[in-house]
Task: inverse folding
């Protein structure tokens, strides 16, 4: 990282005031600093062209309506967008890791990912205290949401990625989530991921979670009004239930159910149709 910054400074020396150049060059040995972002912006220098990483504090307290992250970026470093004032941030499919506190206290409303099946890890406190956050569409193949990742953020309507494997402790603590579906791919749940979520009214869980220690972690810290509803994850079992109760199900809904048995994203709707039929 440091060599990249120092080379960038040298290559653009003519654009930077001499006093500023000497100061930031001497300080570049300790990494990317907020002062560098201000100077680069003033000189119309893009510090991230063809870079694989958005460096630490790159957009610290940065103000912009929209940021379109370059398609070469794979890593977003700690504190990269800390305390930035941005309405929309568009992230490319190339991003595979969002490091701890990358968006800490960022005043962003909308974060959009391009989903092309890439794996993604969201590490500790990544979006913690993003109180303005309204919409976030994570890639379906996001595997990891770590501890405190979205604690005290503004999220209300949000879908967990359908291939999520790890949900960290206190990941959504103190958010305004209304309901959530735990995907059947989940392998590990940290303690109390939805602690103090007082607006959370419903959690849809795969039946396979019932007898696991993960379920105890999931319900730890839930408010008393949160309801757990179960959905099936075994296609053969669901198929048998639907066929055996065909007469009880609206014909149009039956056709829809049967045609989408293998669609794992349809589990919640499937459960609701069966419940309406008294099954």
Result:
């Amino acid at each position: 990282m440091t060599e990249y910054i120092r080379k960038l400074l040298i290559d653009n020396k003519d654009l930077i005031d001499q006093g500023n150049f000497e100061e930031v060059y001497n300080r570049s040995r300790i990494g990317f600093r907020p002062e560098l972002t201000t100077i680069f912006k003033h000189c119309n220098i893009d510090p991230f062209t063809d870079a694989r990483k958005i460096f630490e504090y790159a957009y610290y307290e940065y103000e912009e309506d929209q940021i379109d992250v370059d398609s070469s970026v794979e890593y977003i470093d700690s504190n990269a967008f800390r305390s930035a004032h941005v309405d929309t941030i568009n992230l490319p499919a190339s991003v595979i890791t969002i490091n701890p506190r990358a968006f800490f206290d960022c005043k962003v409303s909308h974060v959009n990912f391009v989903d092309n099946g890439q794996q993604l890890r969201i590490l500790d406190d990544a979006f913690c205290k993003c109180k303005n956050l309204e919409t976030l569409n994570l890639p379906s193949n996001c595997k990891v949401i770590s501890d405190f990742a979205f604690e005290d953020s503004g999220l209300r309507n949000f879908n967990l990625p359908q291939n999520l494997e790890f949900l960290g402790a206190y990941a959504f603590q103190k958010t305004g989530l209304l309901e959530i579906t735990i995907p059947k791919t989940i392998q590990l749940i940290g303690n109390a991921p939805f602690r103090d979520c007082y607006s959370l009214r419903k959690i849809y869980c795969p039946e396979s979670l019932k007898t696991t220690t993960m379920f105890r972690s999931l319900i730890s810290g839930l408010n008393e009004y949160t309801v757990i509803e179960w959905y099936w994850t075994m296609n053969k079992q669901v198929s048998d239930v639907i066929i055996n109760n065909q007469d009880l199900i609206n014909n149009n809904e039956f056709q829809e159910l049967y045609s989408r048995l293998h669609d794992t994203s349809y589990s919640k709707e499937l459960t609701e149709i069966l419940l309406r039929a008294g099954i």
